[in-house]
Specification:
about 110 residues; mainly alpha; Arc Repressor Mutant, subunit A; 3 strands
Amino acid sequence: MQDDYLSATQVTQLKGVSRNAVYKAIQEGRLAAILIADHVAIPREAALAWTPKARTGRRQGIQATEETKAKMATSQRKRWQQRKVQMSETDSPPIIRPQAEPPSLP
């Protein structure tokens, strides 16, 4: 009976995904699960049959084209110019505080 069900952690190890991915699949109804005393139990067959969604984040290792690099550089220069103008408008002279006299030795 115990081997018929897996925990969310066991499914993450089996499928190589995060625990959040497992819980999200359960919430979306893509992965069957039951609740036993506040613990999620996933049928082994369901876990083996489940195919996790592909990652949708930024793909790593793709080089930017020269056109994209040029756009990024132009955009960065504009931001620096805007920041320079903002700083010149809001700059106030530095506050100079008098230094305390060192204590005299007896």
